Sequence to fold (91 residues):
Amino acid sequence: MFTIELTLKHTAVPLSVQKKEKDDAETLYGSITQALSSNSGQLLELTCDQQPHKRISVLGSEIAAVQIFEKSGTATASGRPPGFFALSGDQ
Fold:
C-alpha cells in the first residue's frame, strides 16, 4: 500500500490517501506535483483505495508539499512514519 500525503498552506494537519498499486500512486503524485508547479487554482479530487468512500478535494494553489511512501516497512526506529519534520519531547 502506498500513501500520498499532502501538506497544505496554513494547515498543520496533513491529508493522505492510499493507493494499492505503485503505478496508480506515481500517477497521482505526478498530477499533484504538476498542480504544485503550475500554482493554479485547479481543483484536485483524490480518492483512496483503502477507504473507497474517502474523497478529498483540494485547490492546487493551496498545496505546500507532497510526499509518497510505501506503507509497509516505512517506520523508523522510533516507530513513526516518515514525514516532513518531527518534533521530539526528548530535547
Q: What stands out?
A: The chain is about 20% helix and 35% strand. The longest strand covers residues 63-70.
